[in-house]
Amino acid sequence: MSKKPSPPTPLPQGEGSKDSQIGNRYSSQSPISTSSIGGLLGDFRLLVILFVAFRLMLMMVYQPLNVQGTERGIAAGGDFQTYFQIASLSDTTGMPLRDWWSEFPPLWSYLSVVVYQVAGGNYGSFAMLLGLIFLIADAGNLVLIRRIGAQLYRPEMGMALVWIYAVLIAPLVFTSWTFEPLVVFALLLGLWWLLQKRDINSAVAVAVGTLIKFTPALLLGAVWRFMERGKVLRYSLIALGIVVLVYVPFFMQNAAMTLPSLTAQFNKASYQSVWALIDGNYRTGNFGPLADRLEPAKANEVQGNPARIPGWLRLGAAGAIGLFVFARTRRFDDKGLVAFVGITLLIFFLQAQGWSPQWLMQIIPFVLLCFPTKNGIYIILLLSLVTFAEYPFLFIRTGDTGGEITGALLGPFTILVLARTAILIGVGVGLYNILRQERSSTDGVT
C-alpha cells in the first residue's frame, strides 16, 4: 500500500515566494490610501506649480523665434508677430492713439509698446515677455475658477474644475497666441468680486478689462439684472467713468487716431462666421498693411465683401434676444448670475460679424462653471476640436490662395462654421434653461 503524501508544512507568517514577500513588505511599509491620493489631487498649490512649470518649460523648449519673417516655436500661428509689428511703430512714428491708430483699447495698445521697448525690438524677447505676462494671468484664471466653482457648489468641485481646466489644450494654446488670458482674468475677477458683493472692486475690474478689450463690459448686463437698483447706477458710473476718463486725454490729443480704437473692430468685413458664409468672405479677420495705421480713414475700409445683412439688424436682433432673456430670468442666485454672464457673452459672439478662435478661452470657464458634468467637458472638447480644425488646420492650407478658403476646402469650412455655431446656440439654450429654473439644493450635480 502506498503512503499518502504528507501535507505541505505551513510557511511561517510573512514567508512565501520572493514576490509575495516584496508585496507584503511594500503594502506594510508604503500603503497607498484614498486619503493620500486625495491629498495630492486636492493640493491646489501643487496644481498651480505644475500648471506654471509645464507652460514655462514648454516656452523654454519651443522658444518663439522669427526666422527670416517666419514665426517659429510655441507662438507660431498666433498673433504675437502682428503685435510685434504694430508695436514697432513706436520706434519710427510715435505712440498709439496719438500718432497712429490701433484697433485695440488704450491699455493693451500701450502695454504691447512697453513690452516691445523693454525687449529692445527683439522678437524672441518680446514674445517670451508677453508669454510670461499671459501665463501669470492664466494662473490667475485658475485661482478664480476654483473660487467661483467652490462658491457655486463645494470646494471639491472647485478643485475638480481647475484640474480639468489645467489639462485643456485651448487655454495653453491661446496663452501663446493672443492676449486673451488678460481679458478672461479681468472678466472672471469682475464676476468674482460681484459674487462677493464687492461692487466697487468689480466695477474697477470691468473698467480695466474694457480698456484691454470690450467684452468685460458685457458684465454690466448682469449688474442691471441682479443688483439692487440703488447700487446699479453707482456701479455703472464707476465702470464707464473710468473708461471715459482714460479716453478723454487721447481724444483731446488726436481724436482721428483715437476713434478707430472704438470702431475699427466693428467695421471689419465678416469672417469665419455664418455671416461670412452669407457674404462670401472666406478669410480670417485682418486689417490692411502696417502703413495704413498712419491714415485714420483706412480703419473704415472693408477688407472683403460688404455685409448683406446690416450690422444694425444683427445687433438689434441680439438686443431683442437679450431683452427676452433679461425678462424671463427666474433664477437669481450665484449660479444664475454666472449663467447670465455666460449667455450674454454667447449672444454677443453669435451676433458679431466674425468669429475669433481665441473667444473660446472666454467661453470655457462658463461652460465648466455652469455644466460641471461629463457632458459639459464633452462640449468643450467638441468645440475645441471644431475651432482648431478650422484654424489653423484648414487655413494653414491656403498658402497658394493668399489665405482664402477655396475649392475643396470650402465644403469642410462651411460644415465647421455651421457646427460651431450650432454648438454655441446649444450652449446658449442650456444656459437659458438654467436661468428659467428655481434654485436647486443640488443643481443637478452628482
Structure characterization notes:
- The protein has a domain at 268-282 and 301-446.
- A hairpin with a 2-residue loop joins strand 1 (65-67) and strand 2 (70-72).
- A two-stranded antiparallel ribbon has the order 1-2.
- Helix 7 packs antiparallel against helix 8, helix 7 (123-152) packs parallel to helix 10 and helix 18 (360-370) packs antiparallel against helix 19 (374-394).
- The chain is built from 20 helices and 2 strands.
- It has 446 residues and is mainly α.
Order of SSEs: HHHEEHHHHHHHHHHHHHHHHH
For the terminal residues, how far apart are their CA atoms? Answer: 69 Å
Tally of DSSP helical segments: 20
Helix content: 55-70%
Strand content: under 5%
pLDDT averaged over residues: 90
The whole-angstrom Rg is 26 Å
What shape does the CA trace take?
globular
Write out key terms for the chains shown.
2 strands, disordered N terminus, 446 residues
Summarize the helices and strands and which ones pair or pack.
Elements lengths: L17 H12 L4 H8 L2 H18 L3 E3 L2 E3 L7 H8 L1 H4 L13 H13 L4 H30 L2 H13 L1 H7 L4 H16 L3 H12 L8 H8 L2 H30 L1 H8 L6 H6 L31 H18 L5 H18 L8 H11 L3 H21 L15 H26 L11
Antiparallel strand pairs: 1-2
Helix pairs in contact: 3-7, 4-6, 6-7, 7-8, 7-10, 10-11, 11-13, 12-17, 16-17, 17-18, 17-20, 18-19, 19-20
